Amino acid sequence: MSENRTTTVSISDRDVFIVDCVRTPVGRGYSNGSLNSMKPIDLLATTLDQLMKRNTKVDRSLVEDVICGVVTPVREQGANIPRFAALKAKFPQCVPGVQLNRMCGSGEQAVHFGSQAIKSGDMDIVIACGVEMMGVVQMGSDWQLDETFKDGFDFKILHQGVSSEMIAEKYNISREEIDRFSGRSHELADKAQKNGYFKSQIIPVTLPDGKVIDKDEGIRTPVDYKKMATLKTPFKANGKISAANASQISDGSSAVLLVSGRKVKELGLVPRARIVATAVVGSDPELMLTGPIPATKKVLAKCGLSLSEIDIFEINEAFASVALAWQKELNIDISKVNPNGGAIALGHPLGATGCILMTKLVNELERSNKRYSLQTMCIGFGNATATILESCSFKPNPKL
């Protein structure tokens, strides 16, 4: 895939570059979802295989680790699934794999760990990836809220939905604002899908019965705002959070090929984006989902960029109130936020979402000829991740 691209950035040996990134279509995470007949290991193996088939200059034996986000690592998603998936994708036996769980930020954390290994000089080529099939392995089935998680804390253990209601109240966000943001997500995703913006990033998935899935399943248009306003609010009586303004339960996989600047030059690769900075923070475990606010501030401070210099923002739409609180607190231009829709429309296959968002960002930076992007994700019980990317193909407008 790199043969037809050019780069406009300087390449330093220990810089970390995204050479390529792919994702599967995102299916509804239920028994009737478009991907449900697949096994998680096969979905991930397909993703890894197709990533490498797009990048023939990188021999599979050169990959030094496959780091995979998996939020519910049990049964079909347990037993170090990236190792098995890599072997099934015909990677040589010398290529290791490891899975991690930073809850909703797992895919983005996989990118961070891979980037840190490359920056330190320990590795040169890493695949960061994620997989989650919520229609096969139910969310939360790896733990239970018993006395282990109830006693000995100075805070309450709450459902994320309750926290999202608390955030809406704290930031004085109305139900109408929340529903409008949610409808916007569907409308933007629908526009992107119809205009073919996702085509180059999605790898078609062939099901066991031979059917090919090549489009995201969760997008719903035209948006019926009147019906949306009537939906029940399960986390609070007469509340603001409904099924229509929260992320969808989904199936999906994604993978990002990370390469050091040294290896980029040695192999004659053309990178797509440079990882400028990464950050992870802890935040209030009760309010829980406000972590993207300090994470955004931290990652900007680490690289000396300002909010005004960021061209595109991608914040995971776990709940609309979370994205709106972050946007209001930091006074971010809403037109720069999730320009092709987010998890409310496209879905949130937990462990995969971090890499899916990054794949969307890399492609949107190129499509719109923008330079910098910032990705951030809220995480259960008070964590958040953030990453800043620089496009390697950005060309300034000489008229500006």
TrEMBL record:
Organism: Dictyostelium purpureum (Slime mold)
All copies of domain Thiolase N-terminal, residue ranges: 16-260
Active site per UniProt: C104 (acyl-thioester intermediate), H348 (proton acceptor), C378 (proton acceptor)
The family this protein is said to belong to: Belongs to the thiolase-like superfamily. Thiolase family.
Keywords noted in UniProt: Acyltransferase, Transferase
Coiled-coil ranges from the UniProt annotation: none
Name of the protein in question: Acetyl-CoA acetyltransferase
Residue ranges of domain Thiolase C-terminal in the record: 271-390
Transmembrane spans: none
Pfam families: Thiolase_C, Thiolase_N
UniProt cross-references to NCBIfam families, sorted A to Z: AcCoA-C-Actrans (TIGR01930)
Molecular function per GO: acyltransferase activity, transferring groups other than amino-acyl groups
